[in-house]
DNA sequence: TTGAAAGCGCTAACAC
DNA sequence: GTGTTAGCGCTTTCAA
């Protein structure tokens, strides 16, 4: 019969007493079952079941130093690209018994540093951040706490932390190259804020390689559908001779498409438009958006695996390039200059 | 001079020794500073700074029982509606020094129960779940662990847990009533899977009140843009005499709009369409979607406050109805039968 | 293969 | 106001 006198969680001692062994033995059954005799192990495990015993994570943490918690610092949950990444990350970490603590930074390095400190304080065993632009305080924290940390969404093998992500510069270059190969020589670039956003900066820098072949004109805006729409308005007002628009994020592309259509601009006949990211709606919009697919789910899974390896086997991950992929859909069209 | 001999985190004893006080005094400075003399307090705090001392969360948890962690179980991160909710939740919890542990359930009560157990095991002080459909194992867990738990996205004052959410039935009824007031008498209903989704079921049930006035025809599909598009195809194939479509989620509305436009159906001239949720793109699409705004950010903030009150002051929250709001935009139009 | 016992870093009850 | 001390629930030597 199970002892139900008390309501509090049972502990090692309760189990030990009920099973007629010492607490050390119970602890062994939990942590290294193979060094306990089969019979004892069976009896103890049975008792554990009976008493609904669950080891205290706090007590375990205080002794072993392992909390099984991983902290993720992301700019925002509002962008599907990060949400999808987190989903994959959480799924894979969970398989290995690791919990994910989420903190949003709003893209602000100071907030990031503060929240990172908080995560470390509560015992996060590893940190996952976005991009490679971080505050000094953050770098110091990683150094002092000697905590495994991985930078994602950005590939840079020379960064102080292992990076797992795409080559943002290459992604935008691929996009622009595609437009050029389709005959476009003047392209409007719509992008989000440059400050504190290394992904945007990298994507912009990628375009420079084609500076000789393609003339570009930039429109900076906020990173939202509304921002994309606003940029499209600016674009129209500017009366450029651009034959295509490259949005450095699909959210922006979405906003731009809607605004252009509101102004009766036919896509892709009058102007070609493409994005980068490949969000869910990009393949369902009218027209479907030609874009660069960034495999964020794969990045999440890969990052989780890297963290697990680092934590369990002390294997520091190498930086990993996640290949982006051009997806040609309906929003772009070959341009032929009328001679 | 700071002692740098050791690399490990300094502890209470280190601080006490360096400041020339007892560990109890240091503990007091940390937890109830006002009962320590100003001078002592100053000296101790200085030492704490010097040694970069950070109290061990695990040790604190083992003694005080407080881990400062809250677990959230949500169906998916892929839907902006949940992501926005989480963002608000995390923000407000963070202000009170609480961390958010995220677990996704894929809408499966069994996965939910398993992950809920995991959250409790690692010391979550409270649980936040979505909806009111949960497994027996989950209910048992809440009961046994006596852990504060709040159900969100669904208002039901009779549920065993406090609920903070909207009246889903009322939301869909409001939508259908609006369509009726606009002259629509036959309406196609596009909705997500009914199984394991009480929100969808509630929204469907809300429509029944108007059964006498409005004839409806249902189209069940998956909860995604693609699902919405597929449902729209079905709708067209069915050749109904419906003059409006009510999508029980904006994601579905989005997919449906795109598919209808692909089939050259003019909105809202040939058919009216509305949604429920009010996602970011709903106000930017062409046409902008008439919908029911569900204030998920407010729900997140409110839920966080409720959790904090419960944890800090043992005040069990009352169920709270978050008011939804009809937002009339461009995708709907008055219907006049041609007599 | 098992048990006894010494901590881990902290909080809180109690004493001065 | 401050110090002493007994735990919290566990892991981990060290002996047996």
How many domain regions of chain A?
3
- Fraction in helix of chain A: 40-55%
Most extensive protein-chain contact, per-chain counts: A-B, 54 and 53 residues
Number of helices of chain A: 12
What's the quaternary structure here?
Answer: homodimer
Q: Rough shape of chain A?
A: elongated
CATH H-tier superfamily of the largest domain in chain A: Response regulator
Radius of gyration of chain A: 26 Å
Strand content of chain A: 15-25%
> What class would the helix/strand composition of chain A place it in?
alpha/beta
- Please name the CATH topology of the largest domain in chain A: Rossmann fold
- Tell me the name of the CATH class of the largest domain in chain A: Alpha Beta
Report the average pLDDT across residues of chain A.
93
Strand order, main sheet of chain A: write it out: 2-1-3-4-5-11
Distance between the termini of chain A: 93 Å
What characteristics describe this protein?
homodimer; 339 residues; alpha/beta; 434 Repressor (Amino-terminal Domain); Rossmann fold; 3 domains; six-stranded parallel sheet; four-stranded parallel sheet; 12 strands; disordered N terminus; DNA-binding
Explain this structure:
- The structure is a homodimer of 339-residue chains.
- Chain A is α/β, with parallel strands linked by helices and 339 residues long.
- Chain A has 3 domains: 12-63, lambda repressor-like DNA-binding domains (434 Repressor (Amino-terminal Domain), Orthogonal Bundle); 68-166 and 296-323, Response regulator (Rossmann fold), CATH 3.40.50.2300; 168-293, Rossmann fold (3-Layer(aba) Sandwich).
- A 6-stranded parallel β-sheet of chain A has the order 2-1-3-4-5-11, with helices on both faces. A 4-stranded parallel β-sheet of chain A has the order 7-6-8-9.
- Chain A has 12 helices and 12 strands.
- Chain A has helices at residues 12-19, 23-31, 38-50, 57-64, 80-95, 109-121, 136-145, 168-181, 198-206, 225-238, 250-262, 296-313; strands at 69-74, 99-104, 126-130, 149-152, 163-165, 186-191, 215-220, 244-247, 272-274, 291-293, 320-321, 325-327.
- In chain A, β8 (244-247), α11 and β9 (272-274) form a beta-alpha-beta unit.
- Chain A is 43% helix and 15% strand.
- Chains A and B meet through α4, α5, β2, α6 and α10 of A and α4, α5, β2, α6 and α10 of B.
- β2 (99-104) of chain A pairs antiparallel with β2 (99-104) of chain B, so a sheet runs across the interface.
